Amino acid sequence: MSEDTTAVQEPATTPASDASTGGDSINFTERYSEVLGKVNETLDQVDWSQVGRMGKVVGIFAAVIVAQILIKGILDTINLLPVVPGLLELLGVVVVGQWSWKNLTTSEKRSAVVNRVQTLRKEYLG
Asked: 0.70 exceeded by the pTM?
């Protein structure tokens, strides 16, 4: 009885595996064609004139990130020197003091600063 079962299984397995292999290749080919058709339809719907603008934006972001990394490295190196960070803080305080004295001492100067800020805001933000 075990011999009959073995004999029956061998012929049944061989044609089934051949049929499934051939069927899989046909199914794969059909599926591949469907997927490529969908990809082509999607690519046809893309507005390619906008892609250049997106590329520029990505390039600008990448350049800004690289610049920030370089600036951070330079500032970290400067901070390692013992006297320079204190001098840079003092320089910042002096510059802010001079700008404030020049632009914020009278009401006319303050209103001129507010007008300049509003003009810039309208120009850039619309």
From this structure: no
